[in-house]
Design goal:
heterodimer, A: 503 residues, 22 helices, B: 482 residues, mainly alpha, 1% strand, NAD (chain B), ND/Mrp_TM (chain B)
């Protein structure tokens, strides 16, 4: 490759964000427009990735390798495979929508807000591209700074509590991972190269130790039960764009960490820890869903539903078979789209009513019919109706789960029923019933808002109807990952068969 | 008739930077008599003098002078660089502070220079005598500097406290040194190491007493708990600029002393002092970080934070390896930028009317002065150890070296205390960015302060994003010159 495409993806938004400093603070509309253009260019930059990506190899593509801190054998090493490529596109898309949705709702410190958003975008791209564990850690931790500011400065009334909690939870987890990284460095041939670290003969004891060190960071980020408690607070208090980024990208990084580091580097420990991880996942699914039933706050309900949905993701991951893994990666994308869309939609009505209490709403279907239509589709996708993307993801995960531990999959599937219950009940309370007085005369969706929601609808239906488009990207990489996991020969029970949804 | 032997002038070459600084100090006192107090020559002379010394140090070739009493090795070069750079930055900042404390400039700058000479001697000491000489030469001017600000009673109390505890620590150290001399029959540090490695002294109770006394003395000097109790009061009572100076340069010199005695002199007793130091490091991080949590006064908070950072820096020392020492030195270089930077912003806050060093005073700083707030943000995240700042690289390197030396539990403890520290550093960020401003007075920033702040920000971000050259520099200097 002559053009360092991945570096461009990482540094273009960072440089672009800093260039906003050149615009006088008062010219907010220029700043907004520039931020939007930068994020749109970034989205366009992902197109060559998709076009040039070779789906038939599991090797890392678009590699970039430069020495960075040679004294410690740390390299600036980038590359993507079928697992990471989708997250890059998702990130670029989510940021465009987040900038659009903040157009009017962010009126204070506008310049700082968009700079923070663009810096965050660059750093998140870095997380998904990094193939050096140290570099990954740098991006992973740097991400905390803009997110901390986004929630803490532009968030709701209880924002300071939420943002500090978010920061400290993730920091403690990450720091334990740092110790794990040093331990790995010491035992893995004094390198941070992820590809070299995988496939080394670590003892089981060491693998288990490392597994829990990494678990501290990844599980907090996912967030898995019982370290999920930062998420509802952060989601609830964050500005709409913050919630969308949290749901759309940030919490995917935990699961991505499991995929990229825990599974291939620590295969024996991953298999040994299969049961605890599956059980934690199922608890998250059921617990998250039950808690949703008791929520009176719109955003909090969606936040807890994320806990439940991400439980499905980890369930699929630790099923450790092709369908589970593919379903789980697909579900991460789906969750990013659907929950992102739900947060966008909630943000839109919040701007009109300034309330997130479900009891305040009622009869929106007749006052805002277009909005009700959009929300209906998102609700159905969240419930997993066939034809929407949610169905494909959950179906694959449950198939994988059945292959691995049938009875756990049965318990997990109760999450689907509970999910249908709380989402449809929510829809009924907000959109049907009698029209509340305060709901009359609400402004219809404007063009900008329709433009924001439309790509979500298209993607939800497209993935729901033609899932192979996405699955084909990850197929070979997931197969290779499973070889790495099962190649260690501790558990061979999970079947790696050609039984997939596509030829 | 006796012909006097030709004097060999080449022996003074290694100590030329020190001689230069002594000359500058004398010149400063002399000029002060004739120049008006506001004259800009004195700070410039200080800066140019230190800069010249810095260039001489960096350009020097490894040598030993005065029969091994004075070593100009890589170890010395790094510590000298830290101390000289600190004084340069402090001198740049002083212009801002001068109006507030209304003191005679001449005394101030010459005392800085003299204590700098002491530090440089300490860094180069190949002999216990030179080490002690340097220590006292450094400490006496600093005692005076703490008391320079004659306004409040706190200052006098701080000066007396620092003088008494400092003298006490020096006495203990001297006692330890005399025991070492008695046991080994030499004051030359490399000879001490040789004697200990060959003899049966290792386990003797006298040797352990010597070890203990030296350890206590050194811990006092770098403010390692439980010998840190003087720091909060002294740091709070001293003028802020002196606090900034003390928390970096004499501390770095203290680490130079620490390393000279323990890493160069007593490496064969590492089994004895390593674990003790590990416990002290943990205790220091615990005390520093947890106590900083409940401070409302920023200066006091930074004082406790500097105690905690001494705990981190000790991690490299306790490893007892070349990599560990290199990590400590790297960390101190980075610490110089981030700590001076944080103190500089604090000085900006206080410079308006002399008070105002509490958390409430930085309420809404992001609105009042976005650039200052953004800089403080960088320094605080660096002190917390979040990438892409130098603080993270430094901490990582320290943790790695301690880990490689087998101090796993200490490392885990350091990591957890580091997470605790995030809380109080973030609290400042919170007040700056997330609270409404209480006052709208603008900040006045002098040119020198501007330059110092830019230097600090570049230092913190530069070492964070491109740490390679700094790491290579310390490692090659240390290993190449040993």
């Amino acid at each position: 490759m002559s053009i360092p495409l991945l570096s461009t993806l990482i540094f273009f938004p960072i440089v672009g964000g800093l260039s906003l400093l050149a615009v006088p603070r008062q010219q907010t509309s220029t700043i907004r427009l520039m931020a939007l253009i930068i994020s749109l260019i970034e989205l366009v930059l992902t197109i060559p990735l998709i076009v040039l990506f070779d789906k038939n190899t599991h090797a890392m593509q678009f590699r970039e390798l430069h020495p960075w801190i040679s004294a410690l054998n740390i390299n600036y090493s980038l590359g993507i495979d079928g697992i990471s490529i989708l997250f890059l596109v998702l990130t670029a898309l989510i940021i465009v929508l987040s900038i659009l949705v903040s157009w009017e709702s962010i009126s204070e410190k506008v310049q700082e807000f968009f700079i923070a958003m663009l810096l965050l975008e660059g750093v998140m791209m870095g997380v998904f591209c990094a193939l050096d564990f140290f570099l990954f850690y740098v991006f992973w931790e740097t991400m905390l700074i803009p997110m901390f500011l986004i929630i803490g400065i532009w968030g709701g009334p209880n924002r300071i509590y939420a943002t500090v909690k978010f920061f400290l939870y993730t920091l403690v987890g990450s720091l334990l991972m740092l110790v794990g990284i040093i331990l790995l460095y010491q035992n893995g041939g004094q390198t941070f190269d992820v590809l070299k670290l995988a496939g080394q003969p670590y003892s089981l004891k060491l693998q288990l130790l490392l597994f829990w060190a990494f678990f501290a960071a990844f599980a907090v980020k996912v967030p898995m039960w019982p370290v999920h408690t930062w998420l509802p607070d952060a989601h609830t208090e964050a500005p709409t764009a913050g919630s969308v980024i949290l749901a759309g990208v940030l919490i995917k990084m935990g699961a991505y960490g499991f995929l990229r580091f825990s599974l291939p580097i620590l295969p024996m420990a991953s298999q040994k820890m299969l049961m605890p991880m599956l059980i934690l996942s199922v608890i998250a699914i059921v617990y998250g869903a039950v808690i949703c039933l008791a929520q009176t706050d719109l955003k909090r309900l969606i936040a807890y539903s994320s806990v439940s949905h991400m439980g499905f993701v980890t369930l699929g991951l630790f099923a450790l078979n092709q369908r589970g893994l593919e379903g789980s990666i697909l579900q991460m994308i789906n969750h990013g789209l659907v929950t992102g869309a739900l947060f966008l939609a909630v943000g839109m009505i919040y701007e009109r009513t300034h309330s997130r209490e479900i009891s305040v709403y009622g009869g929106l279907a007749s006052t805002m019919p277009v909005f009700a239509g959009f929300f209906m589709l998102f609700t159905l996708a969240a419930v997993g109706l066939p034809g929407t993307n949610g169905f494909i993801g959950e179906f694959l995960i449950l198939l994988g789960g059945f292959e691995c531990r049938p009875w756990l999959a049965v318990v997990a599937s109760s999450g689907l029923i509970l999910g249908a219950w709380y989402m449809l009940w929510l829809y009924q309370r907000v959109f049907f019933n009698e029209v509340k007085e305060s709901m009359q005369g609400l402004a219809q969706l404007n063009l900008r808002e329709i433009i924001i929601l439309t790509p979500m609808v298209i993607l939800i239906l497209w993935i729901g109807l033609f899932p192979n488009g996405l699955l084909s990207f990850m197929h070979v990489s997931v197969g290779h990952l499973l070889e790495q996991v099962h190649g260690s020969g501790l558990v061979q029970s999970a079947v790696i068969s050609g039984l997939t949804m596509h030829p | 008739m006796i012909v006097p032997a030709a004097i060999d002038w080449s022996v003074i070459v290694p100590i030329l930077p020190e001689l230069l600084l002594v000359g500058v100090a004398i010149l400063l006192i002399g000029l002060d008599l004739f120049l008006p107090n506001e004259h800009q020559l004195l700070p410039w002379l200080t800066i140019v003098g230190s800069l010249a010394a810095l260039i001489m140090v960096l350009g020097a070739r490894p040598t030993a002078g005065f029969g091994g009493m004075f070593l100009l090795d890589g170890y010395a070069v790094v510590f000298k660089t830290i101390c000289l750079a600190t004084v340069i930055v402090i001198a740049l900042m002083s212009e801002q502070f001068r109006n507030l404390i209304r003191m005679r400039q001449g005394e101030y700058y010459s005392l800085l220079m003299l204590s700098l000479v002491g530090m440089l001697l300490m860094a180069s000491a190949g002999d216990l005598m030179v080490l002690y000489l340097g220590l006292e030469l450094m400490a006496l001017p600093v005692y005076a500097l703490v008391g320079l600000h004659k306004r409040g009673q706190w200052t006098s109390e701080a000066a007396v406290k620092y003088f008494l505890t400092g003298g006490f620590a020096s006495a203990l150290l001297l006692f330890g040194m005399s025991l070492l001399y008695g046991l080994t029959g030499t004051t030359e540090i490399s000879r001490i190491a040789e004697v200990i490695s060959s003899g049966q002294l290792a386990g003797s109770s006298a040797m352990l007493a010597a070890l203990g006394l030296c350890l206590v003395g050194c811990c006092f000097k770098v403010a390692v708990a439980p010998f840190h109790f003087w720091t909060p009061d002294v740091y709070e009572g001293a003028p802020t600029i002196i606090t900034a100076f003390m928390s970096v340069a004499p501390k770095a010199a203290g680490f130079a002393l620490f390393g000279r005695i323990f890493f160069f002199g007593l490496p064969h007793l590492h089994d004895h002092w390593g674990p003790i130091l590990a416990c002290l490091a943990l205790l220091t991080m615990a005390v520093g970080n947890i106590t900083a949590l409940c401070q409302h006064n920023l200066k006091r908070m930074l004082a406790y934070s500097s105690v905690a950072h001494a705990g981190y820096a000790v991690l490299g020392l306790l490893a007892g390896t070349a990599e560990g020492i290199a990590a400590t030195m790297t960390y101190l270089v980075i610490y110089l930028f981030m700590n001076l930077g944080a103190f500089a912003i604090l000085m900006l806050l206080t410079s308006a009317d002399g008070s105002g060093d509490t958390l409430d005073d930085c309420r809404g700083l992001a609105t009042r002065h976005p650039l200052a707030a953004a800089m403080m943000l960088v320094f605080l995240f660096s002190l917390t150890g979040i990438p892409p700042t130098g603080g993270f690289i430094g901490k990582f390197y320290l943790l790695k070296s301690a880990f490689m030396a087998g101090y796993t539990l200490t490392v885990v403890g350091a990591v957890l205390f580091s997470a605790i520290s995030a809380y109080f550093y973030l609290r400042v960020v919170r007040y700056m960015y997330m609270n409404e401003p209480v006052q709208h007075s603008s900040l006045t920033v002098s040119h020198g302060m501007h330059a110092a702040l830019v230097l600090c920000v570049l230092g913190v971000l530069g070492t964070g994003i491109f740490p390679g050259s700094l790491l290579n520099w310390t490692v090659t200097l240390l290993t190449g010159f040993l």
